[in-house]
């Protein structure tokens, strides 16, 4: 009985903590890194007062948020108002269950891993919609509407890009997808070469899905103050913040896993230590993609609503549909894929 | 020791109970947004039950399609509408007998169908060659059931086109942007960049001040 409890309850909980705790710390450091990078790009210093090089800034912010009062707006729907941040955070954390960090390091090696990811990312929008509706505020409702329309539109393009990947890999299992990119040609076996348009569309849709700049109309400060979470304060706001950044890091991990060989090394195996695959490679690739999020934010002005819809429906979805056909042909004629 | 089969049975009844209760909540809750959320919970617990039956593809597809897309649109619409709850509930008692009759007939039909199927039940073969459930489903859909599958896809496409055609209207007097024209523009036609020194040299003449009126 004790043995069974240990193996079926204790160890999984330990593994989950091994993913979630580093993730939360990574979010804190990512916020610090974001402020630093954007500071440099604006020719400013960024945070530099708290701790060495300002490293403790993010933790000071966490303490500040947790000590603040959570205010319930008048006539807000109490239950849904408090439920919404949780509904945003739970899918953002649950999606990490199927991410393979290296050949053996994966919490759940589910067969339908890719579908599970799609399901979890599509659930996240409930937190946003309910937050907007339950706070009984015009701005919040407008933000929720914009966000919902945007997330649904870009999910289609994203889904079609995932279809390209699974056509070439022939599997929905994320570990199998990475292994399918381990062909003898090293870096040229990665799916990013035959599926380059799909990678670009996938990553831009990922930016749109996480409501990040330049697609951050849902919280467009100049128009609707902060969108769906305008009424939230303290720890409830912190949960939304955590969910948004956890999703950003998730997209940054998925892009290399699906298109750039995950934990595989770009160098041939004969090169010794740097030729070996392993989680450091995945982390390095994910870091590069996470940096792109910050770069975009510092570079591009915000899209307008109709421009976002045009880009999603009239540009990305047609290209992605055509590329599904192209991927099918490449697989059929043995040009790419397993 | 916890028996896995017993645990599965307990889970099945728990998910089933949640599904039934939330389905009841859909029709009994006063707030329509709450009702939509109860419907989401119903779909979710149904997906959990399918997952228990190892139909993982169907379960996740249910979540992606219904919970992730259809219900979001539903919630969207319900949130925007200002529904008068009392007016909708006016005929509740009047239509109750009809509703009960329909429900009972449906229940009887379903039980009869289950009875017929149970008599001809064949136990499913073991999973061939360790294929995943999803691969199995895909092979069946694209070989044995290809024609019905394609016809279903065609019908759905026709439905989408019909819906668009019904709501599409040409509005006059609307200023539209042509993205292709905007992209094709040459920046030099719009902006002229002029090179000039950022600072005035020290020995230069001070800039002419605006002519001041002579004070009396």
Shape of chain A: globular
Helix amount of chain A, in percent? 55-70%
Helix-strand category of chain B: mainly alpha
Biggest sheet features of chain B = none
Order of helices and strands of chain B: HHHHHHHHH
Q: How many beta-strand runs of chain B? A: 0
Radius of gyration of chain A: 21 Å
Termini separation of chain B: 108 Å
Total helical segments of chain B: 9
Any low-confidence stretches of chain A, pLDDT <50, length ≥5? none
| Structure summary, number of beta strands of chain A | 0
**CA radius of gyration of chain B:** 33 Å
> What is the terminal separation of chain A in angstroms?
44 Å
Order of helices and strands of chain A: HHHHHHHHHHH
Q: Main interface pair? A: A-B, 29 and 24 residues
Strand-pairing-aware structural class of chain A: mainly alpha
Instruction: Give a quick account of the main beta sheet of chain A: strands, pairing sense, barrel closure.
Output: none
Instruction: Report helical residue fraction of chain B.
Output: 55-70%
Low-confidence stretches of chain B are none
Core attributes:
heterodimer, A: 338 residues, mainly alpha, B: 216 residues, 9 helices, 68% helix, 0% strand, elongated
How would you describe the overall organization of this protein?
The complex is a heterodimer of chains A (338) and B (216). Chain A is an all-alpha fold. Chain A has helices at 2-41, 57-67, 78-94, 113-134, 138-169, 174-180, 196-209, 221-224, 234-259, 279-299, 305-332. With 216 residues, chain B is mainly alpha-helical. Chain B has nine helices and no strands. In chain B, helix 1 (4-28) packs antiparallel against helix 2 (32-52) and helix 2 packs antiparallel against helix 3 (56-80). The N and C termini of chain B lie far apart (108 Å). The mean pLDDT of chain B is 82. The interface between A and B is medium-sized, with 29 and 24 residues.
